């Protein structure tokens, strides 16, 4: 992996292959390895870029006491500039889909296309009055819980609460994928877990109807219904395409890697010509 010095930390990233840039942004409390099946598939045709977002993976802790999706997007912009990448294809999962959406909002015609897996617009995936949201914040409770339990325990409790409302294996239908995700969470410190949680909760999505970028939104059939609804809203705003893969959960690119890759390649083929 390579490193990029920021004013307040060091961003770790990796590039493979040549061609049009295809940039993968992982989900919350994961790392760039979450895209391994896609890197292997596309590195022969594209310049594939993966990164570990602040607080995650090799990038780990950085100086700010508070993170935001906007800050993560700032980092993405710095990386694209450092690598001199024009017209990138953005592929984001969950938190990474938020970063991609923020980038599209800022640059409605800069990206060649976007693929949003497990796409979510806000956390929780419901509309809350802007003025009321800070007063409903679960951050104090999360901070208290983290002082007594580790991130992996907190994450498991989040999964239990989500699955109780969906009745599905929400995160992943594959035990090996779930285990790898839990291992990644376990590598994150308490403070970084809190900062990432805060970034997810505080993010306020913008209307993206001005975005001109061709976009594909992909969910697993066992995705939370409210998240699927947000995906449909995204597709409506972006005039994009929506795809639901059977036998897959939130980590749709890992649950159904071959199907995800096939659909992504088909979507990108006319754009890459």
TrEMBL record:
Record GO terms (molecular function): hydrolase activity
Residue stretches making up the AB hydrolase-1 domain:
22-261
Question: Coiled coil located at which positions?
Answer: none
Q: Which UniProt keywords apply?
A: Hydrolase
Any one GO cellular component localisation term in the record:
membrane
Q: Which Gene3D superfamilies match?
A: alpha/beta hydrolase
Q: Which PANTHER family match?
A: AB HYDROLASE SUPERFAMILY PROTEIN YCLE (PTHR43798:SF31), MONOACYLGLYCEROL LIPASE (PTHR43798)
Q: Any idea what this protein is called?
A: Alpha/beta hydrolase fold protein
High-level lineage? Archaea, Methanobacteriati, Methanobacteriota, Stenosarchaea group, Halobacteria
